[in-house]
Amino acid sequence: MPTNAPGNIQPSEITPRAVYLQRRRFLQVAALSAAAGWLPLSAEAGVKLTTTGKSPLSTSEPPTPLKEITHYNNFYEFGVDKFSPAQRAGSLITHPWNVAVEGEIRRPNVYSIETLMKLAPLEDRIYRLRCVEGWSMVIPWVGFPLNALIRQVEPTGNAKFVEFTTLYDPEQMPGQRSPVLSWPYVEALRLDEAMHPLTLLAVGLYGEVLPNQNGAPLRLVTPWKYGFKSIKSIVNIRFVEHRPTTTWMKASSREYGFYANVNLHIDHPRWSQAKERRIGEFFKRDTLLFNGYAEQVASLYRGMDLKKHF
Ligand code: MTE
Q1: Ligand 1 site, residue 256, Cβ cutoff 6 A
Q2: Best residue among 228, 233, 246 to mutate for probing ligand 1, ranked by most atoms within 8 Å of CB
Q3: For the chain, how many structural domains are there in total?
Q4: Which domain holds residue 86?
Q5: What is the 3-state secondary structure (H, E, C) of 169-224?
Q6: Per residue of the chain (310 residues), what is the pLDDT tens digit?
Q7: 87 lies in a domain?
């Protein structure tokens, strides 16, 4: 069949999906800005964020280069390898973005990302991130403590856990079209873990709005836990009485526990957790208990059998 016949579209003429979605996103933002008479720059990638400066909760270790932080990712909604998120996450539309906060609270509400960013002053927080697979980084986040939001919504006496859910939209998140995980991605913390001053809602890194592949526009960061607890692109925060079953527990409860505290003494069934490879370094280094945050968080788990509650 002749390929240049009228009505015969060449593959090269079809707009790639990511470009199409980017264009759609641009048009949505432009329309919204025109309607509101202002430019919603605050949630756009690459935009500088104003912070109160470096938090004393920061590590003094040198941050991993930006290129590594943004090109070696786990974000299964955009593919299961480390390189796909940077290539494919452009299809995620992060503006407008709303987060529903509900469940066992006195003041349920739907927050726009801009409103959330004004709940508390943004801080620079340089944290270690240790992935369950054995690599680690040092990431200069920008964010605010989750406890600022929790105080605002006033949990009832029944609120024992906080559950977080990622956006579910297979159109924008092509990885959700395959059943590698049960979608949407869900994570959860005990209420006292969620209230801990180290627990951060991140909206940026290296002083700018989060790149999509790092979980734009809002992600959780719990630096003493394995990286999979740090759920990305959150659209729902729910306060509940009973312990939720998280995505990775559903995938393999033997391998991924609810607490997921970094613990060199408890090996993953398929590999040791005693050492880690810091991205950019050649030799492996020893993994620290609670990822080096034991002084701040060990008291949360006093009296608990950490082998059982892994
Ligand atoms: N959140 C969602 N929604 N989907 C994911 O696949 N991966 C987790 C976590 N949050 C993941 C997620 C894992 S396994 C890790 S190690 C960190 O994100 C990686 O964060 P980074 O890519 O910003 O380094």
Answers
A1: no
A2: 228
A3: 1
A4: 15-252
A5: CCCCCHHHHCCCCCCCCEEEEEHHHHHCCCCEEEEEECCEECCHHHCCCCEEECCC
A6: 333 333 444 444 444 444 444 445 544 444 444 344 333 344 566 799 999 999 999 999 999 999 999 999 999 999 999 999 999 999 999 999 999 999 999 999 999 999 999 999 999 999 999 999 999 999 999 999 999 999 999 999 999 999 999 999 999 999 999 999 999 999 999 999 999 999 999 999 999 999 999 999 999 999 999 999 999 999 999 999 999 999 999 999 999 999 999 999 999 999 999 999 999 999 999 999 999 999 999 999 999 999 999 9
A7: yes
**Pocket flag, ligand 1, residue 247 (CB < 6 Å):** no
Q: What is the CATH number of the domain that holds 91?
A: 3.90.420.10
Give, for ligand 1, the residue of 64, 67, 72, 74 to mutate: max count of ligand atoms closer than 8 Å to Cβ: 74
How far apart, in Å, are the Cα atoms of 261 and each of 123, 158, 234, 249?
Answer: 24, 24, 21, 14
Closest C-alpha to ligand 1, atom 17: 227
From atom 11 of ligand 1, which residue's Cα is the shortest distance away?
75
In a domain, 133, yes or no: yes
Residue nearest to atom 22 of ligand 1 (CA): 73
Please give the backbone phi and psi of residue 295, each rounded to the nearest 5 degrees, phi first: -55, -40
Task: Indicate if ligand 1 lies below 6 Å from the C-beta of 246.
Answer: no
Residue 298 domain flag: no
